[in-house]
Structures are given as structure tokens and as C-alpha cells.
Amino acid sequence: MGEHAADPTHPRYRSLLMRHRLEEAASKGMLAGSALIAHGRGEAYDYLLGEQTIPSALEATREAAARLLAAKKPIISLNGNAVALAGKDLLEVAQLLSCPVEVNIFYRTPERMAALLSHLEEIKDMHDIDVEILGAAPDGRIPGLEGPRANCHIDGILNADVVLVPLEDGDRCEALVAMGKEVLVVDLNPLSRTAKMATVTIVDELSRVASNLVQLIPTAPISTEWDNPAILQSALSYIVTTMASFAEK
Amino acid sequence: MGEHAADPTHPRYRSLLMRHRLEEAASKGMLAGSALIAHGRGEAYDYLLGEQTIPSALEATREAAARLLAAKKPIISLNGNAVALAGKDLLEVAQLLSCPVEVNIFYRTPERMAALLSHLEEIKDMHDIDVEILGAAPDGRIPGLEGPRANCHIDGILNADVVLVPLEDGDRCEALVAMGKEVLVVDLNPLSRTAKMATVTIVDELSRVASNLVQLIPTAPISTEWDNPAILQSALSYIVTTMASFAEK
């Protein structure tokens, strides 16, 4: 960890802590090289959000919580970055929802899958969390996708009605939407294809989102009429206003 | 490389190619984990520039070329990302200027230094470039910096009057400016401390900058009165306008 990150009063403490978690996960073989680059892109957008949960993002998180609670068969899809940044809180969310999580990664290798699954089992043991972890033996495929990234569990992502997919890529988000699922995503770039494609887009940093979900789910929020383009617009306006204010300084 | 990157007509070909170069360099041990994250931050800002050299960046590149040509003792400082993204073109720039390059990295380890130095020697051999490469045996220190990142060559960075430092961190940029040097930097974030601190800031992607320098130096441009805050303002306005236009769509 950098020299500053050990000090929780440092204004960028949390951002530096997340960077540290990613680097540690990389050293454990949990991540593809592209995962660190993707995290950096997220850092840049989060910086433009002031590294905080903006009001429209909290609204989207509340909506996601409501839809997960109302789902018949919800699931949380986890990739390497999601496990590294917010593994514990996302397992807690799954426990609150009594649903499984499924490890589903873009560059699937046996080594990376094993590293992720064992890291999640460790978290479960350490925090006494009881959640089913899928991903080891996928027996289905997401229609419309090619290669190993289409692999999934029939009893997991394939048959779920509502999927929380933090940090998803555009193709897979599109494929899940095409299957008729409600797709709830976390994406710091309000202009990304994933952000535009999803049912509900939370424009926020994942560890903050996961922690907010842990708080919100027990309050049993109710789903609303949801205007996702309006929420993206709101996030984008926030970023533009922030940058314009920098420009005036 | 991703499925698209092999196709030069793909609109994001160049960005995907740079990502590939970084991942390859990482696998050769040339980069710290933080280097990939830093590249991702750059990708996000470059996306907001439309992945192109904007007019104010070309102006800054021309000014940098002029100052390097007018210098008594110019030098190019190279870190891991600079070597990975634009090693060949930056060595060509040094050859055009008849100046040395110096490998000077933030997280200095013997293994990473060796990987970078041997990669540069390979490029020299392959392209028949005759440039002195410093960095292996630093005998001086940059005043005001702590730890191994202060190490430099007396006959290199320490005594240079004009330093091109692509992708520099804020502290070192500040330390070099405090030594009275002209510091020319490449930084995709016009709000960064490095960008604000430098004598001339080129807000552009490094491989484009290096290629532009190779073109511009033989035209022997002349240095001007230089208003760096105005150039940063111009880059920021460009980004804000781009995002605002996305917001209107």
C-alpha cells in the first residue's frame, strides 16, 4: 500500500485502500491484467464524482435493493474485481436475500476460478456467512455469447429473473437483458454500453454500493417506476458540473 | 489481445493496442501493479478526448519539441509505462536530439530495472538506434525526494536543464521544477498535480505524443511565450464540452 493509504484521515484513503485490495488480489492470481486497467478507468470516473455516492446513485441502489427483494430467483454475479473490492459485503447481501452468488469471469482460466472460489470460501468461514457459491461447474450457457465467458449455472444465472452484475462488460449485459432478465449493474462510467443497456444502473464505486445495499435491504424498500436514462443523465450532469467547476478555478 | 484489437479499422484499435502493450510489458516483469491501474485512469481521460490529439495538445507538443531542441542538456526520463507504450519512438526522439534517456521508476526493484533496460537495448538493436541509456547505476539523488525513487544519474537527470518526463508522478515533477529545470510532461488528466506543476503539459496519450515529436523535431520549431495554465484550461474545456454533448444525446 502507498505511504498515505494507512492513514484513514487521508482524503483519498478509501480510493487508495481499494487500489491496494486490487493489487493484492492480482498478486493472488485472482485477476486478469485487464482487470487492473479496468479498475484504473473506474478510479478516473470516481475522481470526477468526488469519490462519493451521489444522490442519484443512492436512488438507483435503493431501486436495485427493492428489485432484488421482489425477485423470485435473484442472483449476484461476481467477477474478479467484485470479489477483490467488495467480496465480503456482496456475500452479506446474498445472505440477506437468501440467494446464491455465481462467479462468472470474462477471461476464464481454471487457476483464476480456483483462486476466486477459495477466496470467497475463506470470507464465508471468517465471517460466518452462509451462502451458496456457484461457478465451479457451469452446466449452462448464456445464449448469444461465444467462448468460456458464456458458461453459467442453470440453477444460477441462467434461470434467475433478477441479476445483480457489478462491473459487467457490455456484451454480457446485453445478452442477459435479451434473455428477459432484470439486470442491475454498477458502472462508474455513465456513458458505457453496460450503463445504457441495464435495467437499473448504479453509477458508483462498488465497495460503497455493496455497503449501501447491506444497509438498505433490511429497510425493505419498494420498487418504483424506474427511468434509467434519466438516472444516467443525472450522473453525467453531475460529472460535467464538477469538471466545469474545476475549469473555473 | 482482445478479439477486436487485431483489426486496425476498429475505431478503438489504437487504444486496444496500447492496452495490449501494457499487458505484455506486465507479463515481462517491466511494470508494477499500480502501472496498469494508472494506464486505466489514462484510458478513461483519453476516451473523453475522443482518443485523438486535440489542437491544444499539438501546440504543447510543438512547444516541448522547441524547448528540447533549445536545451543545453536535454534528457528523456522513462518509466515502465513509457517504455511499454512508446519505447521505440522515444528512443528515436532522443536520437534526433542527440541526448540520453534515463530509466527512472517509482517502485524501483533490480528485476524491474533489468527488464526495462534489456527491453530498451532490444529496441535499439532491432531498429539500429544509437542512444545512451542511463539508469542502471545512479550516482546522484533528486533533492527533496525520499527513497529509491530519488535515485538518478549526475550526468543524466540531475544536471539536465530540460527534462521530458512522460507520465510523471506529482512529487517528482515538483522536485524537478524546484531544481530550476524546465519540466515537460505528458498527462491525460489536466487536473492532476503533475499537469499543474509542469513547465509544459501535453494532455495527450503518450504513443501519439511520441509519434508527433518524431515528426515535429526535424521541422525545428522555435519556443514561444508559453501560458501553461491556459493550455490546461483549453484541454479541460474540451473534455467538458465532449461530456456535455454526450449528456445532450
Name the helix and strand elements of chain A from N-terminus to C-terminus, one letter apiece: HHHEHEHEEEHEHEHEHH
Mean pLDDT of chain A: 91
CA distance, first residue to last residue of chain A? 32 Å
Report strand % of chain A: 5-15%
**Strand line-up in the sheet with most strands of chain A:** 3-2-1-6-7-8
Largest beta-sheet characterization of chain A: 6 strands, parallel
Multimer state: homodimer
* Biggest contact: A-B, 29 and 29 residues
Features:
homodimer; 249 residues; alpha/beta; six-stranded parallel beta sheet; two-stranded antiparallel ribbon; 10 helices; 8 strands; 11% strand
Verbal overview:
- Two copies of one chain form a homodimer.
- The longest helix of chain A is centred in the C-terminal third of the chain and has 21 residues, at 228-248.
- The first copy, chain A, is globular and about 55 Å long.
- Chain A has a six-stranded parallel β-sheet, with helices on both faces.
- Chain A has helices at residues 13-27, 33-48, 55-70, 80-97, 110-127, 154-158, 170-178, 193-197, 206-216, 228-248, and strands spanning 74-78, 101-103, 133-134, 140-141, 151-152, 162-166, 182-186, 200-202.
- In chain A, strand 7, helix 8 and strand 8 form a beta-alpha-beta unit.
- Residues 1-5 of chain A have low confidence and may be disordered.
- In chain A, helix 1 (13-27) crosses helix 4 (80-97).
- Chain A is 54% helix and 11% strand.
- In chain A, 51% of the residues are buried.
- With 249 residues, the first copy, chain A, is an alpha/beta fold.
- Chain A has ten helices and eight strands.
- At the A-B interface, helix 1, helix 2 and helix 10 of A face helix 1, helix 2 and helix 10 of B.
